[in-house]
Amino acid sequence: MSVNSSRFDSAIGWSARPDAWVGRSVRFLFSALAVILFCGPLLVIFSGAFDHNPDPTKLSVIPDNPSLINFQVAAENKIWHYLMNSLIIAGGALLLQLSVSVFAAYALARKKFRGQAIALLVILATMMLPEEVIAIPLSLVIGDLPLVHVSLKGTLLGVILPLGAWGFSIFVMTEFMKEIPNELEEAAKVDGAGELRLFAQIILPLCKPALGVIAVFGFNMIWEQYLLPLIVAADPSDYTLTVALLALRSDDMVGTGIVLAGALLALVPSLVVYLSLQKSFLRGITTGAIKG
Fold it and tell me: Where does the record place the ABC transmembrane type-1 domain (predicted)?
């Protein structure tokens, strides 16, 4: 089967015209600029983390003196302990956040009740409040949990619970569930499916793309938390990796390479989560774009 070369060239952005090299050159320059802007800082972090004595005033992509000494010193500063705290908080909070989001979205999208629009409006309003505004009330609540009068200060649970619900995740899931045809739900009810079976076997499997989206965004939101872990912490050993990195940076006895080693460790979980959920994430984003 023959292939029309001119049509193929046009599809990938090339052109057979004499002045086509101008367009190719411009696209190449913009692509190179984008790669430098996005990948440059990552390469600098990688280089500095494995450099025995990195110079903070020098832009280096390749380590001048490759060594693992920065990770060894970072381990002596309990960097692995802080990383474990962050992983436990991120895993627990993300699982709770996904559960709350799907159940709340199911009620808002598939059920009808009084005050439904007001409930969604209140959920969206929580996204408009800066962390600094709710810092003091949140600290008081964590210090004396209402009804049970238990203090969550100095516990990982004190960080996990406030992150268990996020307005963005609930909104995304709600809008996605609204697009599921009602005919599927009606057909399942005719076949004798109950409410729980309908939710678990019909609605939830169709929401996998949206779950990928809120999982990636939710993990990054939880992983980047700084103020909440700082409020909950009763001792430096309660710090997460994000808080610990700033503490290490302010310590004059700690070199730049150690901080970069910790920053490299902080990048790995986010990359792993994104690469693991890449297909669902991209499918959810493109599905939302097509529906929009």
Answer: 83-277
